[in-house]
Amino acid sequence: MWKKIRDWLEIRIGLDNLVRTQVKEFRVPGNINIFYTLGFVALTAYVLQVISGIFLLIYYVPHSEHAFSSVQDIMNKVPYGWLFRQMHVAGSNLMVAVVFLHLFSVFFMGSYKKPREMTWVTGCLMLFTVLFFCLSGYLLPWSQLSYWATTIVTTMPTAFPVIGDFIAWILRGGDYVSGSTLNRFFAIHVALLPPVFLFLMGLHIFLVRRIGLSSPPLGTSSKKGHWTEYRPETHPEGYPFYPYFVMKELVMVMIYLALMFFIIAFLPTLFLPGDANSPANPFKTPVHIRPEWYFLAPYQMLKLIPNKFLGITAELILIGIFLLWPFFDTKEERNILKRPRLLGVFIFSVTIWVVLTIWGRY
């Protein structure tokens, strides 16, 4: 049976040639490290989110009067429903962490430099899409936590004069978070964002394979000469993609799965605190309400800047710099250890982000 399928594909797409050129003969740098596997781990995490999300979609009711009870039924009545929801919740947080680590490592390795500017931009856009996934999905359980966290986030655009109130109204579908907001976020979460993410992911993978993997600049010559015309970066002296690099990727995926199931088994309330198990009540504001950990740094920054308009404007400028950084940093040297100023900016930025995140929890 398998041989017939293989022969059928071989005649139509040249399967042997495809596997030989794209897998067996494709070579990766000899000094490649485990940080280069994080892109594949993020891809695996997204696939798991899709699988668990489809399962939840079967039982979830996107209506303000039934959303909370349907989620409780998934947790308590549907066979293995608790497992799929915990996988979806823990997986979303871990996926954000993996994408963050992936971008940090790309920045540290200088892999955003010419000719990989578009690869960096698509990666950043994928990060923003993942965060939008988390934001839109956060409201769906219709709990006290999700309701008031969404209220805080959708209030932020009102800091902008003229168009701020209109943007907030578009997000909410009214003057405040209601059933209309739930319907909009549900549609965005399951219908709009998946094709956007798949498009960005396809473009990102195409760019990576078309240009070739960059080699770590640490301990080697990091200057590749002027890129005046297209040429793929090959590594004839490196290791074969399969099985050498594939095995590294699978090991990292196993570590990711072990961490996710450790959280599900031993820390089930880590991402589902008490307010996540109470139905949304628009007339009762919780004493302590905060966004998820990946929004704590910008949340705390806004609290420290007294003028909300200036605070949001400053954050948008920082996001723009982050997104377009390859076009600002045009020096050829990729080894960040040979660029003390850039290394200082990197360490300072990461430290500030960590401090604001921890500060935002208290």
Tell me the layout of helices and strands.
Layout: H1 2-13, H2 15-24, E1 27-28, H3 38-59, H4 67-76, H5 81-108, H6 117-139, H7 144-155, H8 164-172, H9 179-211, E2 239-240, H10 241-266, H11 293-304, H12 308-323, H13 325-328, H14 340-360
Antiparallel strand pairs: 1-2
Helix pairs in contact: 3-5, 3-10, 4-5, 5-6, 5-10, 6-9, 11-12, 11-14
Give the structure's gist in a few sentences.
The chain has helices at 2-13, 15-24, 38-59, 67-76, 81-108, 117-139, 144-155, 164-172, 179-211, 241-266, 293-304, 308-323, 325-328, 340-360, and strands at residues 27-28, 239-240. By secondary structure, it is mainly alpha-helical.
Characterization of this structure:
By secondary structure, this protein is mostly helical. 66% of the residues lie in helices and 1% in strands. The chain contains 14 helices and two strands, in the order ααβαααααααβααααα. The chain has helices at residues 2-13, 15-24, 38-59, 67-76, 81-108, 117-139, 144-155, 164-172, 179-211, 241-266, 293-304, 308-323, 325-328, 340-360; strands spanning 27-28, 239-240. It has a two-stranded antiparallel ribbon. Helix 5 packs antiparallel against helix 6 and helix 11 (293-304) packs across helix 12 (308-323). It is globular and about 65 Å long. The termini are far apart. The mean pLDDT is 91.
